[in-house]
Structures are given as structure tokens and as C-alpha cells.
């Protein structure tokens, strides 16, 4: 009996001593302060550094090397290809072949381009002005970061940011060889990427675009905003819309879309089969119709958009450079579905019957197929003081974009391919783009306090706060910059004057494993260590509670037992 009484007393005292004071009711804490004074200040638990570097914790190289000199200016097959000032550039032989036509270049150029001999066929000069007017483009459908029954993880891998590889579908130029870099790699070759290539033709050209459906689902091509007939000359559907104009192009089949556009402008193309899924998986691209000018050899394909390196006659006459900017947002949960199964029937059911777009959220935000920090590798708008630049912008995402430039004001000259009256062309630093909307922007790097504030590295991005994150972690998303030549290193990387970017070039940062300010405020706002004082109190409280429960159970049992 005495032992049990002692245990009761011990447990009660231990519970009272162990009970954390900050758990007391406020009135009791105030009363104890009046009686005994304020308690001593107890230091916070120490900060702990991020865990030891592991997979994805070491920073990547900011600017990949350019061993083949793709960034440099080239003269290939009589095509002048402009230099790229940012650190990643497209294959110049592909650009030359897309201008002259894969049916008109040497075997060496064709081999270096990666295109098939019929990928971009260029025909006759119908109006006698020195450039071709018959263009036949062949596109396929490629899957990126899909599943495989042979190897673990995604295959034909394409990262939009460090460690971020969403499932994607894209239209791709018709290519020879493998989908990956080499037989030892799962990385997608450079031509297979997001977004689908920007396509350029000339006003009045006779254009044929053939979709050779190499995918496991039906697809079409809808020429959004471009002047085309509802049916072609044979009466076959030509609008790419299964509901009204045609049966989709089934796997293994092909269909040719025809147009002879009468108006120039910045247009759009995309799949129109189950568009709430297919368009948002990446089956979309810019479709640009250039003004008809003499000797106007245009860059038929601009893989992944970005800088236009073979510009039209009009662009060369008026601008120092031209850039295609393609914005897109992605639903991570949608993209993951192509890795869940290897049976096309199960993928189709998952994406078109189980997936509910009305409950979807957009997690990744890209410009030209990349999210920050990769946007600084290849999606910079570059120029020098006094330059006039042309930007063609499309919003291919679900959400609207409030496109904002730092340090500059631009002028919207065209909306949805239609020129705006001079009276509506006013300088602004935020432009709203609804879904599928296109804007042509005139950007003048003139340091007059209105057009520009002077040389630097000036961000441009969606001013909606979600758009500058990678699945909620910032900085990320569609952040890029207007970078002046004097602020670029020889390799094309900006001479940033802010914080270290090492964290942003690690997969661990976007897995939420690294405190956001660790690289320049180490320890101050890192994760907290163990509060040992509180831990011991909780251990004592648990021990006291266990003893009390045991004593109560013993008392109950003894009362029920027969005497």
C-alpha cells in the first residue's frame, strides 16, 4: 500500500515538473509570474545545416559547354545564321536545312541536322521574287519522360528544371536516328523538347503540314488563327477538329493539312483531340506567317522557340534581333499518368476518363520549355543599348499571364496576329495574355527613362505569384531576363550580382530539402535542431502518464477481484 502511494506521489510530481510551462492556461501562467516572477529566458533550439550532400544536392554546371560551336554565327548552305549570346543554342545545321529545305541541302548538312530528307521539303518560287513558295513540313508526335517496362524511371528524359521531369507529348520535326542522345543515355536528343517547334512560313505560300502519327493515341493539328479552309481540295477535313471536320489521325496513319495564308501574323497550332489533355501535355507551338517580301528565306523550324537566328526580310530591316516566347503551365499529376502503365489502353483510360481537368492544378510554369533556373541558359532576351527587338509571345497555358518586364516598357504592336491602330500602341510594362492569345511586342533598349532604364540584367516574368515557382518553390517558373551584352560572360551566362545560385541548380532545393536562404544566410534561417529541454519534459510526461495509467488499471483490477 505504501509503495503504491509513493508511486502515485512520484507520478504526480513528475507530471507537474515535466509539464511544459508554455502549455499552461494563460491565466495560470500570469498568476505564476506574479508569484514567482518571470521565468528565465531559454535559448531557441540551434539551427542545423542541410543534410549531407546526396543525390541531387550538388549544384549542376550553370552554363553547359558548347564544344561544337553552335552559339557562333555560321554560314551554311548559303544561309546566314546569327550568333546566340546566351549559353545554349539550337543546332545551326538543322536551321540551315529548315531554311533551304531538307530536299535541297548536301548529305553532310542533312546528316548534321538530324532531320530526314523529307522533313521540310521546299518547292518552286511561284511568284518569282527569289524565295520558295511551296513548303511541305512533316511532324511526328514524341513522348518525353514516359514509362518503360525495361528500365526504372522515366525514359527519353527531358528536364524543365533541376530534377523536374514532367510527362510530356510534343510535336517534333521528322528526325532520323534515335530519340536519345546515344545508346548509353536516356536523355532526349536536343531536337526532342518542349515546346513543339515554332513554324515559320511566308504570306501566300502553299503550305502542307503532314502529321505522321507515331504515337499510341489519335491526334490532329489545328491551325489556330491561321487562314485555312474547312476542307481541302479533295473534300477531306482540314480544320483538325474531330467534332466537326474529320476523324483523328490514328496511330500509324498520316494526314496532310493544307493552307495558303492571305494574312501575316503570329498564330498558333495544337492538337484538337481531347484538347483539355493533349494541348496541356505539350502538343502546341507557335505558327508564324511572315509578310511576303522579295528574297525572303524564313527559318521554317525554330525548335523550342527562343531566338530566331535566320530572320525574315522585314525583321532584318526593322529589328536588331527577334525572339519567340512560348509560355505554358503544366499539371504534374496529369503528366505522371504516362508513367503509371505501359499498356496504351490503361493510359488512355487514366488520362481521358479518370483524369478530371476541372479539379486540376498547374504546378510547373515554363517559357520556351524550361523553368527557372534553366530559363537563363536559353531563354534570355539579349541585346545592346539602342537595339530594337521584336518579341512574339503566346500563352499556351490554362491560366492567364501578366507578363511584366523590369527596367523596360514595351509596345504591343499586334494582338492575335492583327496589327493594332497607332493610337492604341502605348508603352507598358505589364501585358495580359489570355489562354491561346498571342502578342507581338516592340522592345526598345533606349535608355531614356521610358523605353529602358539602362543596361543590366532585368527580369521579365509572369507577375502572378504562382508562375514564378516550381511546384510552389521559388524562385522558379517562367522567370527570365532582358540581358545586355556588357552583362554577359563569354560563355553567355549573365554576370549576376545577387545571391549565389548554387541551391537553385540542385534537385534537392526543388524537393524542399534545402532552406531557401541557406546559401547566403547559413544558420540564421535554417531548419531547427532538436529542443532537448522540451524532449526530456515530454519523456518525463509520458513516463508519468504511463505510471498513472498503470496505477489506475491496478486499482480497477483489485476492486473487481473477489476478496
UniProtKB/TrEMBL annotation:
Residues 194-292 form the Plastocyanin-like domain. One of its GO terms (molecular function) is copper ion binding. Signal peptide: none annotated. InterPro entries: Cu-oxidase-like_N, Cu-oxidase_fam, Cupredoxin. The lineage of its organism: Bacteria, Pseudomonadati, Pseudomonadota, Gammaproteobacteria, Chromatiales. The chain crosses the membrane at residues 534-557. PANTHER family: FI03373P-RELATED (PTHR11709:SF394), MULTI-COPPER OXIDASE (PTHR11709). Coiled coil: none annotated. Residues 40-60 are annotated as: Disordered. This is Multicopper oxidase domain-containing protein. Keywords: Copper, Membrane, Metal-binding, Oxidoreductase, Transmembrane, Transmembrane helix. It comes from Elongatibacter sediminis. It holds the Pfam family Cu-oxidase_3.
